[in-house]
């Protein structure tokens, strides 16, 4: 038993939704190894949890009989002061506990034995490992000069090759200054292409960080970074927390991509966390985009971001044609699209037809009583598939499609609406000699199948590719001369105020990535909608119109929104909790929307209500959350309260 004089006391934060720290004793034999920001194992109730040390306290400040820590995690160097400051900001801004924020910064829970060669432990100058850049990058690249300044730079370019070439001098110049670099992309599929590009000029090792790494792989990459063995990391969202000690630049590709918003606690947005880290550690952030998010466009207009636009330099324009489907006889193929497909088939050019709805038909309808089979777990109609099953694409529930109506026993039961399975059949009827392939999650459900699809397209074994957003990727579109959007209205009319923005960004991405001199044909029943008109004309018109609508309606980015989502298995309890929230807020000087059922009011057996608080000052909303709503959440049984700051989805 250690003497009382040799025992220290610490405060520890845990990965729990509890916005407080917990005091523990530190045995004398490990006292010297306990540091602020260090990771420890501690007893908590009947469990053993990992936590971060956030303070050392005197004995007289503690109360009661404190438990001792179990272990100091010696293989985890303490989080730096800058990471702790970043964690406090995440906790404050995104309304989560400090423990949850710090565990998102450093999510590794266990240690592993990692064998390292002596060569890998030598800390060499990364700048010396960058090879000579080719002429495609340019001798006096305009992007490098901005590295002398601090702040946020929004680089806009539609030229895909140009934007990649801009990465190289930015990375090279930063490494030459003995500073480290993080390059962040929205999807794992981007990483192999970028890794190959950078390795063609950079001889040093690159750390790769993404969610599909095993715990051991993640630990190994983290350890190499923290030991100074790697100076450059590329990865997805969580790569922003790479433990570099001399970070000099963060590059974010496709800053507008919704994948950068985390859906679990803490619900942070990668872009804003990257900017905050840069502010804390004093270095620039470069955001790349072809069609900026309205938030970034707004900040650039106000001068908060420094905006730089690079013109497309391939000298070849992609043509956009908008087809008014109200004037067409065929509900799937306009005369223009049909003619263009025939022309491309004759020239042996692959065609891509996009429709973002899986299955054969949207739902099954009884034409006698009007009943539609719905998912018992979700408040959503079941999708009819060719295999004769009705499927819920939210929870995975399946049942056999009935031949007669279960309600009225009527025999006139038919599928209504269009899905990719039906579209594939119609394409085969229209173009019987063409080799047609479908690319959606029902067919392409593994990386091997996706690679096979891609190789078949490259080898021209596919004439027409029918698919969903799964195939809207550079390695697919770069081989396509014609893209047909079967019906743009499905995405345009989603029950989300950002629907127009998402459609605009998707169509801009398709236009940017397809082959030079390609054609994009957009079929729609609303050809005069400003989202579609702007794509075929001046793209700035979309932002100006969308911004004015958002301003008039007091939508983001003109006001902060905080969405409170309530979920529970008993509908009346959820409704009662929603009403209690409304009563708590009504007396406060703040605007709010709801509470109301979500557009998808029941998902996976849980009823869903939401309420949106809105104010120019986010701190005002946080005060109400802490004073009025958080105590209410803790007292609810059977209802889960979720707080989402700056939500990207409201469905």
Number of helices: 18
Mean pLDDT: 88
What does the largest sheet look like?
7 strands, parallel
Give me the count of strands.
27
- Considering DSSP H and I runs of 4 or more, what fraction of the residues is helical? 25-40%
Instruction: Specify Rg, calculated over alpha carbons.
Output: 27 Å
What's the end-to-end separation, in Å? 57 Å
Overall form: globular
Percent strand: 15-25%
Low confidence ranges? 1-5, 117-122, 135-140
Structure explained in plain terms:
This protein is α/β, with parallel strands linked by helices and 651 residues long. The protein has 18 helices and 27 strands. The strands form six sheets. It has a seven-stranded parallel beta sheet, sandwiched between helices. Strands 13-23-22-14-21-20 form a six-stranded parallel beta sheet, with helices on both faces. The longest helix is centred in the N-terminal third of the chain and has 17 residues, at 160-176.
């Amino acid at each position: 038993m250690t003497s009382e004089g040799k025992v220290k006391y610490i405060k520890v934060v845990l990965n729990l939704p509890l916005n407080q720290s917990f005091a523990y004793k530190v045995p004398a034999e490990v006292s010297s190894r306990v540091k602020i920001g260090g990771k420890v194992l501690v007893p908590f109730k009947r469990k053993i949890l990992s936590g971060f040390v956030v303070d050392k306290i005197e004995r007289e400040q503690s109360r009661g009989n404190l438990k001792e820590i179990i272990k100091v995690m010696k293989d985890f160097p303490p989080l730096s002061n800058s990471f702790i400051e970043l964690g406090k900001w995440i906790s404050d801004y995104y309304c989560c506990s400090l423990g949850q924020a710090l565990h998102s910064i450093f999510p590794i829970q266990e240690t592993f034995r990692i064998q390292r060669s002596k060569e890998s432990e030598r800390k060499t100058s990364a700048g010396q490992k960058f090879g000579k850049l080719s002429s495609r990058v340019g001798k006096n690249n305009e992007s490098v000069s901005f590295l002398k300044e601090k702040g946020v730079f929004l680089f806009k370019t539609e030229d895909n090759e140009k934007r990649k070439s801009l990465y190289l001098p930015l990375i090279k110049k930063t490494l030459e200054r003995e500073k480290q670099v993080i390059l962040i992309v929205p999807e794992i599929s981007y990483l192999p292409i970028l890794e190959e590009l950078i390795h063609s000029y950079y001889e040093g090792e690159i750390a790769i960080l993404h969610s599909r790494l095993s715990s051991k792989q993640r630990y190994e990459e983290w350890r190499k970074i923290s030991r100074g063995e790697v100076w450059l990391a590329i990865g997805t969202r969580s790569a922003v927390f790479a433990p570099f000690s001399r970070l000099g630049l963060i590059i974010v590709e496709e800053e507008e991509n919704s994948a950068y918003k985390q859906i679990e606690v803490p619900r942070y947005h990668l872009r804003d966390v990257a900017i905050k880290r840069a502010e804390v550690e004093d270095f620039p952030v470069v955001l790349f985009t072809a069609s900026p998010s309205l938030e970034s466009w707004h900040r650039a207009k106000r001068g908060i971001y420094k905006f730089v636009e690079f013109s497309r330099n391939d000298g070849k324009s992609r043509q956009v044609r908008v087809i008014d489907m109200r004037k067409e006889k065929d509900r799937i193929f306009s005369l223009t699209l049909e003619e263009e497909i025939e022309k491309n088939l004759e020239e042996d050019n692959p065609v891509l037809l996009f429709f973002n709805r899986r299955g054969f038909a949207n739902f099954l309808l009884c034409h006698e009583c009007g009943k539609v089979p719905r998912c018992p777990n979700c408040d959503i109609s079941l999708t009819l598939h060719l295999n004769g099953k009705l499927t819920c694409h939210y929870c995975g529930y399946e049942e056999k499609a009935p031949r007669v109506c279960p309600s009225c026993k009527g025999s006139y039961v038919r599928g209504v609406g269009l899905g990719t399975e039906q579209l594939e059949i119609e394409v085969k009827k229209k173009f019987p000699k063409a080799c047609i392939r479908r690319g959606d999650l029902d067919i392409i459900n593994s990386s091997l199948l996706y690679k096979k699809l891609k190789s078949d397209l490259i080898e021209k074994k596919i004439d027409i590719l029918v698919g969903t957003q799964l195939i809207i990727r550079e390695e697919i579109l770069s081989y396509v001369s014609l893209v047909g959007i079967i019906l743009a209205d499905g995405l345009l009319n989603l029950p989300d105020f950002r629907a127009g923005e998402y459609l605009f960004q998707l169509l801009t991405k398709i236009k940017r990535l397809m082959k030079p001199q390609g054609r994009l044909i957009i079929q729609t029943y609303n050809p005069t909608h400003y989202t579609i008109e702007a794509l075929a004309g001046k793209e700035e018109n979309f932002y100006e119109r969308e911004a004015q609508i958002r301003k008039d309606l007091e939508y983001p980015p003109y006001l902060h929104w905080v969405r409170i989502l309530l979920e529970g298995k008993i509908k009346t309890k959820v409704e009662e909790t929603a009403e209690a929230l409304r009563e708590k807020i009504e007396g406060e000087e703040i605007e709010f929307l709801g509470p109301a059922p979500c557009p998808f009011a029941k998902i996976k057996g849980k009823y869903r209500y939401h309420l949106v608080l809105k104010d120019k000052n986010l701190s005002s909303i946080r005060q109400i959350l802490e004073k009025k709503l958080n105590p209410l959440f803790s007292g609810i049984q059977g209802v889960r309260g979720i707080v989402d700051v700056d939500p990207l989805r409201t469905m």
